[in-house]
Design goal:
Length: about 300
């Protein structure tokens, strides 16, 4: 299993990218697109330091979620955080992908069929093929606009042999992931789950890859991801608990750093989280291979 660490387009996290410890990362076009140099500096150090680099379209940053409806995007509320139209945003994305082709391994399509209709998304896929970008494209399943028949066609049409499904959404039932994973696996097509790092999900469903921003939780909220005797979890640095730190001994030095040298504390905490996620992805790779699932 691959676990992509997301958020690395923010140069705040540059020291972690340059550490050489991160194996897989997600960067977002939404945040890179307005850089005067097209995010080139960021892309260069990501490409140099990280084995697998995937660019997300930024669809869910560009289009605000419909509050209370459990929709990642909405036909009813077309509330955006920018004045760009979907077509204009897509054009900028295509041009950016062409200009920076050598810096990424894969990119995620602009999966906003719930706003623009899935027909428009399919038209955009044809444009990606014309621009000779489609071989690096991760296409996405959203149950509101894609039937199971469409999903099979999407898998079989994939040139990258890499597809994705939405993760858990508020007020939405969890997808039947095994029904989506099985036909992809049988066809040798890898499948990604967005924002899925819940142990209960990873124990139950054999995704090829998932992504998460939770590795930076310690720097934002004072709690760090860690490998503990009982498995993987988060340690709150603001709670001095003998039992807690018995489970995560590598966090001992951080307690004294917070409030005294926060920049050093953040770095130590981030590196512990990166190490934890590396161990976590190995754990789930081994687990699923033991169960007979071995992705190519």
């Amino acid at each position: 299993m691959r676990i992509y660490l997301a958020g690395l387009e923010n140069q705040t996290w540059k020291p972690f990218a340059l550490s050489g410890k991160i194996q897989n990362c997600f960067g977002s076009f939404y945040y890179l697109r307005n850089d005067p140099n097209m995010g080139r500096e960021t892309l260069e150090y990501l490409r140099k330091s990280i084995k697998n680099v995937t660019i997300d379209s930024g669809a869910h940053s560009f289009f605000s979620e419909m509050q209370g409806a459990g929709m990642s995007v909405s036909n009813d509320v077309k509330k955006t955080k920018t004045k760009e139209t979907p077509d204009a945003y897509f054009e900028r994305y295509v041009n950016w992908l062409k200009a920076n082709y050598q810096y990424y391994d894969y990119f995620v399509e602009l999966d906003i069929g719930e706003i623009v209709t899935q027909k428009k998304v399919l038209d955009w896929r044809e444009r990606l093929k014309q621009e000779k970008l489609y071989s690096k494209c991760i296409t996405v399943y959203h149950p509101k606009v894609v039937t199971m028949e469409d999903w099979i066609r999407t898998i079989e049409d994939s040139q990258s042999k890499y597809v994705a499904v939405e993760g858990d959404r508020p007020n939405r039932l969890r997808l039947s992931y095994n029904k989506l994973i099985e036909p992809a696996y049988k066809r040798g097509v890898r499948i990604h789950g967005f924002a899925l790092n819940d142990k209960r999900v990873l124990n139950k469903y054999p995704f090829f890859s998932v992504d998460s921003t939770s590795w930076i939780a310690g720097m934002k909220f004072g709690s760090g991801f860690s490998v503990m005797d009982s498995g993987f979890g988060f340690v709150n640095h603001r709670i001095k608990s003998e039992k807690l730190f018995a489970l995560a001994k590598q966090h001992y030095p951080i307690m004294d750093l917070f409030g005294k040298n926060n920049s050093k504390a953040y770095y130590v905490d981030g590196m512990i989280a990166i190490d934890g996620y590396n161990k976590m992805q190995k754990h789930y790779t081994d687990l699923w291979e033991m169960r007979g699932i071995k992705w190519k």
